[in-house]
Write a structure and sequence with these properties.
It is a single chain. This protein is of the alpha/beta class. The chain has one domain: 3-Layer(aba) Sandwich (Rossmann fold), CATH 3.40.50.360. 31% of the residues lie in helices and 13% in strands. It contains seven helices and eight strands; from the N terminus they run βαβαααβαβαββαββ. Strands 1, 2, 3, 4, 5 and 6 form a six-stranded parallel sheet that branches. Strands 7-8 form a two-stranded antiparallel ribbon. The mean pLDDT is 94.
Length: 262
């Protein structure tokens, strides 16, 4: 298996970096090929701007989606973006690893998504009609590939529980798992989340490292999150609303978009 880890932490001596090294070693020991995009070490440009579209006339108004589509179609995206797209094509599994900052990913990782997920590459593909609404949410460029998150959080696990003050961790990560990974077609595995990371001692690290090694060894067999496929019959097209008969049982919010366990 070929695995791409997109890593977003500025400190080479961080806990995140140590966990990344554990993951890489475990994957390689299992016979997998691994590439790492270390965004801070790469000096990744996070902000989308006119410079991302060299073929766009300097005086032209920047409409990002249109410019992205034209640049992708004409193979005129910048070299750094095309290199990351090639890595995504190469990889069977994508891992996004980051600390949870202000309830989401660091800006540099969001900028990687903004620039690499070009129109025509990760979105804007497939038929749009009154019966089918594009290759997305379970279909698309990345269909047949797996993806997951490795996340560290400073708060307690209870802070991210069903009644925790921060909200459930699955809800906080839903925009990433569903909107960034599932959208272009990835089969999304449950995230690996470590809590109270600012209080780690050697024993806690060793315990977490062992659990992470096990997750890496089972990437190919771990059951995925059962997100509902957009074109699988659960949604009304073209409004893309979940069919009323599927809302029974009191489920609300993001959980509506996950098929209930049998």
């Amino acid at each position: 298996m070929k695995v791409l880890i997109v890593f977003a932490h500025p400190e080479p001596g961080s806990l995140n970096a140590a966990l990344r090294d554990v993951a890489v070693a475990a994957l390689q020991e299992a016979g997998h090929e691994v590439q790492v995009s270390d965004l801070y070490a790469m000096g990744w440009k996070a902000a989308v701007d006119h410079a991302d579209f060299p073929a766009l006339a300097a005086q032209s108004r920047l409409k990002v989606a249109a410019a992205s589509h034209e640049a992708f179609t004409q193979d005129s995206l910048t070299a750094d973006v095309k290199a990351e797209q090639d890595k995504l094509r190469w990889a069977d599994t994508l891992i996004l690893q980051f600390p949870l900052w202000w309830y989401t990913m660091p800006a540099i990782l969001k900028g990687w998504v903004d620039r690499v997920y070009a129109y025509g590459f990760a979105y804007g593909v497939g038929e749009h009609s009154d019966r089918y609404w594009g290759n997305r949410f379970g279909e698309g460029t990345m269909a047949g590939k797996r993806a997951m998150l490795i996340v560290t959080a400073g708060g307690w696990a209870e802070h991210y529980g069903e009644r925790g003050v921060n909200g459930p961790i699955d809800d906080l990560l839903f925009p990433i798992n569903h909107g960034i990974l599932f959208y272009p077609g990835y089969t999304v595995l449950p995230p690996f989340v470590s809590y109270r990371v600012d209080r780690f001692d050697e024993a806690r690290f060793n315990q977490t490292a062992q659990a992470l090694r096990e997750r890496m060894r089972t990437l190919e067999t771990t059951p995925p999150i059962a997100f509902r496929r957009q074109n699988g019959g659960d949604y009304v097209i073209p409004t893309l609303e979940l069919k009323p008969d599927l809302e029974a049982g009191g489920t609300q919010g993001f959980a509506l978009h996950v098929t209930p366990a049998a």
